[in-house]
Amino acid sequence: VRMEAGKEISWRVGTVASGQEFLLADSRGGLYRIGLAEGPPRQLKAVTQTELASPITSDIAVSGGVAYAAAGAGDVVTRHASELTELARWPLEGRLTWGPATVAGAVYLASDTGTITCVLPDEAGKWQLTASGASLAGEPLPQGDTVLLATESGTVLRCTAATGEEVGRVELPEPLASGPVELGGQIYVVAHDGSLLRIAVP
What we know:
The termini are far apart. By secondary structure, the protein is mainly β. The protein contains no helices and 19 strands. It has a four-stranded antiparallel beta sheet with strand order 1-2-3-4, with no helix packed on it.
């Protein structure tokens, strides 16, 4: 990856693609698959790279050999994680506020319209739900064939992992700053004021 003196470059978080490789994007529109060069000395090198028409504007999630990221005017673009070639794209409803992130093989993302999108493992399907105009507060928590989703407005939803159908919810009296976590068989979330809240599983 070549960098020129005097020019600022911002980087998007790389996501492990496979083994000892990861993907990295820069604000100039460069996308790179980074791996280890044969040594000694062992060092990182760009195994594959490409220049994009529009820089990536989000984190990069990888699932099943496919990379997901937002670019341009808000489209979600999928690319081959090894070759970096574009596979598909779809318009995002509103502005991306969380993700994309890979959780248990599925890719989740959320927008400021309250739309939460899940792409199932191996691109077996995609579902969306609207969570009262609030974005995700943090990473979803898979539990068997369901998943717990916490929103910034204080709602914790239990949905089926395969379809997104809501099967339960808890309304908390304050906004949340984290997704749900499980500790000792109990479910906890963190409120915006830093409080740790234990909740009944919806």
